[in-house]
Design goal:
Layout lengths: L6 E6 L5 H12 L2 E4 H14 L3 E2 L2 E2 L1 H10 L2 E4 L2 E4 L2 E2 L7 H4 L2 H5 L2 H15 L4 E5 L2 H5 L5 E6 L2 H14 L6 H17 L12 E4 L5 H16 L4
Parallel strand pairs: 1-8, 1-9, 2-8, 9-10
Antiparallel strand pairs: 3-4, 5-6, 6-7
Helix pairs in contact: 1-10, 2-6, 8-9
The structure holds 2'-deoxycytidine-5'-monophosphate.
Length: 227
Amino acid sequence: MEQKRLIIAIDGFSSTGKSTVSRILAARLGYTYIDTGAMYRAVTLHATREGILRDGNVDDERLSRALEAITLEFKNGEIYLDGESVEEEIRGLAVSGNVSLIAAFANVREKLVAWQREMGRKGGVVMDGRDIGSVVFPGADVKFFLTADPATRARRRHEEMVGKGEPVSMEEVEANVRQRDRLDSTRAVGPLKKTADAIEIDTSEMTIEEEVELMLNVIHARYASGD
Ligand code: DC
């Protein structure tokens, strides 16, 4: 019997290692990985480049029009905005500092959620974000919710950014992580929220490999027989 191709939802705070774990998990299962944060980041980059977002102010009419005009695609694990790979540019502080603002717009969420549902419709996906188990796929086959204490997350994000040659201080990164937590969990539409059926994993003391193993065990325990 052919194995069922599952929808696996992974939500949680920023810098919990979600995307790394999700990418590895997808590879181990032979599934497609969809990084929904990259989609919000790419829209933020577009809004910044076009001056739709300027000094913390957003021109929402132009933002709505831009959403109708842009294309977002994933190719070889990278996100493309209107045919250009923006995978690196979307990780910088300029985008990180404004993405929660853009992600709070209802029309942005509506559009991206519709694209995400389309991408995951046939199953065989690991999708990570903030609202995957609660809004995008409330009926996902397995839901994980990742946490880690803010200092651990700031340290992880700082290492990642410094590793990429971005000159930021630990304080700046920690302030950004805390601010995004607050904005992401308190926004009116699609706030970060653990659903009752999600399995919570505190990753503070875990290695990536341990997280992946734990997730695979949960998935296999539930769906071992391929039913
Ligand atoms: O996972 P990340 O740090 O790349 O996400 C970037 C931002 O996008 C994050 O601050 C919140 C937002 N986001 C969201 O609102 N909904 C999602 N499904 C994914 C990300």
